Amino acid sequence: MADSGLLHFLAGADTLARVVLALLLLMSLLSWYQILGKGLRTLLDTRRQGRFLAVFRQCRTVGECERQLPADTDDSSPAAARVAAAAFAAGRRWRLGGGDLASAAGGEFIERAVYRETAKARVALESGLSTLAAIASTAPFVGLFGTVCSIYHALLAIGQSGQGGIERVAGPVAESLIMTAIGLAVAIPAALAHNAFVRSGRLATAELEDFGEELQSLLASGVAAPQAGQGAPAWPLGVSREAT
């Protein structure tokens, strides 16, 4: 039992066991690349979107709100800014065609533009989630496969040696379970991160959908909201209907 442990297992591992370990290492690196990269992007996007909405919700007219948009909206712009830019662009096209934004057809035209941009944002939010889900679901089985193969080879070697005492069996079998532990160590962070990103994506999508409806109301009426009082915010964007 003295010559046991991870290093001893690696030293005596056959080709198949090393292939399984290399696969688990690759899955772990890919998982953490997605976790750290997507986590950082989500944090930065949330901060940028918060700053954009904090300024945008202060506007009271269509022209004032449109001036708050960045000069150029691209993939690095906040999702809310891209949705607003798409809504205002659709509004300009509809007005140039002689249409009335307050009509049902005009509202539907704006709604389609908002929906398309929101769908693009949803796809970006879901990027990388399938990779994390695949790693979380398959890594334990990859580790278990390595454990089964290692136990098989260990017992076969013990049988060929003719020495089958418990002290000869316990060490190799215990070392083989390392593969299962590594598989779980790879899968658990991927599963937790996947669930966290799914939840944050749903919240961000719900916020964009609410924002899109507020944009439609703004373009149809020409003003953000009736001013009920001086202390009340003109346009409480980002506040979900569930909270009210």
TrEMBL record:
Presence of the UniProt keyword Disulfide bond in the record: no
Organism: Rhodocyclus tenuis (Rhodospirillum tenue)
A Pfam entry, by short name: MotA_ExbB
Name of the protein: Biopolymer transport protein ExbB
Similarity section: Belongs to the exbB/tolQ family.
Assembly information from the UniProt record: The accessory proteins ExbB and ExbD seem to form a complex with TonB.
Residues spanning the signal sequence: none
Domain MotA/TolQ/ExbB proton channel positions: 104-207
An annotated GO cellular component: plasma membrane
Any one of the GO BP annotations: protein import
